[in-house]
Write a structure and sequence with these properties.
The chain has 153 residues and is mostly beta strands. It has two domains: 1-41, no CATH class; 46-52 and 63-151, no CATH class. It is built from one helix and ten strands. It has one helix at 5-20, and strands at residues 46-48, 64-68, 72-74, 78-85, 88-93, 98-103, 116-118, 125-127, 132-135, 140-151. The strands form two sheets. Strands 1, 2, 4, 5, 6, 7, 9 and 10 form an eight-stranded antiparallel β-sheet that branches. Strands 3-8 form a two-stranded antiparallel sheet. Strand 5 and strand 6 (98-103) form a beta hairpin.
C-alpha cells in the first residue's frame, strides 16, 4: 500500500528541480505562467510462498474433488500455494478456501517449488486466460482455469 506521506515527500524533493525546468506556456499565454507536471507510477508484485508441511501425526490425507471455479480471484486473498500435480498448483486463500490453478500444457509446477510471483492487474485481480505466474527461476506460465476444491466425503 502506498504511504500517504510519500507523494508529498517526493514533491518536496522535486521542487528545487522544478525551478530549473524550462517554463511552458499555458494555452499560448506568454504572461510567464509556468506549469510543472509530475507523474507517479506504482508497480505491485505479490510473492506467494509455497506452504511446507510440518511433521504431523498420521492422519488420512484429505482428498479433494474439483468443481467449477471462478474466472478471477482477488490478489489480496492469496495466502500460499502447493504443488498439486503435473499441470496444476493448489492455491490457499483467505478463510482456508482452496483453488487449483491449471497451467499451460508446457509448464511444470516443479518450477514453482520455492514460491512464485503474480503481478495483479490494475483491478487487483488475477484471472484465468489472462494472467501468468512467474517462477523465481524466471519461468512464466499462463493460468488456463481455476477450479474450486471441495473435500471428498
Amino acid at each position: 500500500m502506498l504511504h500517504h506521506a510519500l507523494p508529498a515527500a517526493l514533491l518536496a524533493l522535486a521542487a528545487p528541480f522544478a525551478a530549473a525546468m524550462e517554463p511552458m506556456a499555458v494555452d499560448g499565454a506568454t504572461d510567464g505562467v509556468t506549469v510543472t507536471q509530475f507523474s507517479f507510477h506504482q508497480r505491485v508484485v505479490i510473492r506467494v510462498p509455497r506452504i511446507t508441511s510440518a511433521p504431523q501425526p498420521r492422519v488420512a490425507p484429505v482428498r479433494y474433488k474439483e468443481k467449477r471455479g471462478p474466472r478471477c480471484i482477488a490478489a489480496d486473498d492469496l495466502r500460499g500455494a502447493m504443488i498439486a500435480d503435473n499441470s496444476a498448483i493448489d492455491l490457499v486463500l483467505n478463510g482456508g478456501r482452496r483453488l487449483r490453478a491449471k497451467l499451460d500444457g508446457d509448464c511444470g509446477p516443479l518450477d514453482f517449488y520455492s514460491g512464485f510471483y503474480i503481478k495483479p492487474a490494475a483491478d487487483g485481480t488475477v484471472c484465468a486466460d489472462r494472467d501468468v505466474i512467474r517462477a523465481r527461476s524466471g519461468a512464466a506460465c499462463q493460468i488456463n482455469v481455476f477450479r474450486t476444491l471441495k473435500p471428498r466425503r
